[in-house]
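Review form for a predicted model. The reviewer records the input and the model, then writes brief findings.
Reviewer: anonymous (R2)
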Amino acid sequence: LPNNDDLRCIKLSQSQYNNLSSKGDNWQKPSTASWSTNCEEVYIPDDNFEKELISLGYDFKLDNYVLKSNIINITVLDVINKDISSLEGIASFENLITLRAGFNNITTLDVSALGKLNNLELQRSSDLVSITLPNNSSNLESIDINESKITSIDVSGLPNLKLLDLNTNPITEL
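Model under review:
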């Protein structure tokens, strides 16, 4: 078991997981694996996005998947200027408060599932043509999407929005 670098997660019952601290010294696992009560994986199709998750220590292997347990508690994600084309999988970052993903090649972005999101920075995402924001979110206060290709954006469900930067966008509908 300790030499299996393909092993990502070892699922345990809650009682087994609770006993790890007292008996875990005898249990060996590869460094790429984690102990968890939930081994759900999230699909991350963009290699550059996954490479950044690896460099930040949230993933260990470039295989288009990351353990949800490794990303669910992330509150700030900074992936600026990483040549990312897709943030597919971002919906599983359920506790994300700040997303900084500007200077990338993202064309569409759906952050509607990120109800805790407070700050969204996508400046100079020159390929961005479509964004779906959380609806009825009292948390989102700042959106910076300057120098993109957004033509319309719906902010009607964001009652506490304080900053909306759409500078240098071909906005036709707000």
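Findings: Helices lie at 14-23, 47-55, 68-71.
Further findings: The chain has a mean pLDDT of 89.
Recommendation: see findings above.
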